[in-house]
């Protein structure tokens, strides 16, 4: 018997047809532990679960695979016991997040915040806007999300430039940022949060961006120095769109709420109606691979 643990009954319902011999149990990570939890070999935790991880792993002594339903691993990576394979949901949420990137970029360039404000005030208030054609968009993070964002930008005749930790075919190295940033109309952050990317977007980084440029963050809030960004927004030199920020959730009264030239969405880029079904289609496929003895996909190896 292969025991698989998922976080709630909805997740259980989203699983497709599973191989014979698979038993699914439900556990939300709390103290009320179901029967056979100690027999679990394949665990799907709650989305971005970061609390009491040591205790949760201790309750799963036979665990072999931890399958996330998100792409980021920074909250769990250091807690995974030796011998347990960690897999991400890379590829599941990329299309939805890339759509939000396009949404906020177009909204900013086409001045939608201005027009919405004028509509609410009942004023006919024309303003010249801009478009994406020929805009140079620097995408920092060349994984699935970066690639999906670039593909959509090309459909708008923009010029996406991908940046990764190290250079490869048609992708620049992050060490080239000092020369790339001054030419960027838009900078999109899609990198994972690591020791290398924490605080990457600091005052020096922002100072290299040209006047009027737009920063879009769909990565993690800690990639950006909040105070440095606030300074640039308040001066009116730069614009931004943040789906993630530091701190998060953003508390009431935080200066970001009233910062000019800023669009905020509450970590909602991947929150689409089909997200759960897509995530658990991947989980089902991974369970089938595990039972068959096939290689799992999206395995986290080495330095993330």
Automatic annotation (TrEMBL):
<dbReference type="InterPro" id="IPR006140">
    <property type="entry name" value="D-isomer_DH_NAD-bd"/>
</dbReference>
<keyword id="KW-0520">NAD</keyword>
<protein>
    <recommendedName>
        <fullName>D-isomer specific 2-hydroxyacid dehydrogenase NAD-binding domain-containing protein</fullName>
    </recommendedName>
</protein>
<dbReference type="GO" id="GO:0051287">
    <property type="term" value="F:NAD binding"/>
</dbReference>
<dbReference type="InterPro" id="IPR029753">
    <property type="entry name" value="D-isomer_DH_CS"/>
</dbReference>
<keyword id="KW-0560">Oxidoreductase</keyword>
<dbReference type="InterPro" id="IPR036291">
    <property type="entry name" value="NAD(P)-bd_dom_sf"/>
</dbReference>
<feature type="domain" description="D-isomer specific 2-hydroxyacid dehydrogenase NAD-binding">
    <location>
        <begin position="103"/>
        <end position="269"/>
    </location>
</feature>
<dbReference type="GO" id="GO:0016616">
    <property type="term" value="F:oxidoreductase activity, acting on the CH-OH group of donors, NAD or NADP as acceptor"/>
</dbReference>
<dbReference type="Pfam" id="PF02826">
    <property type="entry name" value="2-Hacid_dh_C"/>
</dbReference>
């Amino acid at each position: 018997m292969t025991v698989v643990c998922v976080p709630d009954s909805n997740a259980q319902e989203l699983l497709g047809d599973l191989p014979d011999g698979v038993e699914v149990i439900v556990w939300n990570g709390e103290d009320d532990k179901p029967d056979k939890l100690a027999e679990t070999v394949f665990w799907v935790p709650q989305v971005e679960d970061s609390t009491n991880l040591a205790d949760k792993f201790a309750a799963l002594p036979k665990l072999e695979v931890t399958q996330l339903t998100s792409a980021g691993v920074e909250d769990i990576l250091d807690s995974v016991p030796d011998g347990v394979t960690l897999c991400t949901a890379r590829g599941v949420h990329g299309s939805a997040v890339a759509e939000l990137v396009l949404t906020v970029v177009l909204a900013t360039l086409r001045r939608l915040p201005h027009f919405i404000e004028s509509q609410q005030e009942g004023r006919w208030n024309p303003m010249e806007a801009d478009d994406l054609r020929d805009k140079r968009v620097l995408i920092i993070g060349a994984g699935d999300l970066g690639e999906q964002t670039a593909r959509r930008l090309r459909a708008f005749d923009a010029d996406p430039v991908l940046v990764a930790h190290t250079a490869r075919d048609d992708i620049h190295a992050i060490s080239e940022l000092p020369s790339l940033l001054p030419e960027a109309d838009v900078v999109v952050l899609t990198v994972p949060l690591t020791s290398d990317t924490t605080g990457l977007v600091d005052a020096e980084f922002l100072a290299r961006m040209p006047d009027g440029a737009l920063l879009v963050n769909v990565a993690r809030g800690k990639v950006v120095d909040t105070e440095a960004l606030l300074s640039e927004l308040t001066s009116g030199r730069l614009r931004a769109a943040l789906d993630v920020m530091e701190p998060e959730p953003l508390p009431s009264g935080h200066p970001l709420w009233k910062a000019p030239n800023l669009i905020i969405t509450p970590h909602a880029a991947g929150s689409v109606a089909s997200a759960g079904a897509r995530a658990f289609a991947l989980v089902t496929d991974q369970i089938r691979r595990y039972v068959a003895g096939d290689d799992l996909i999206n395995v986290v190896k080495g330095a993330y």
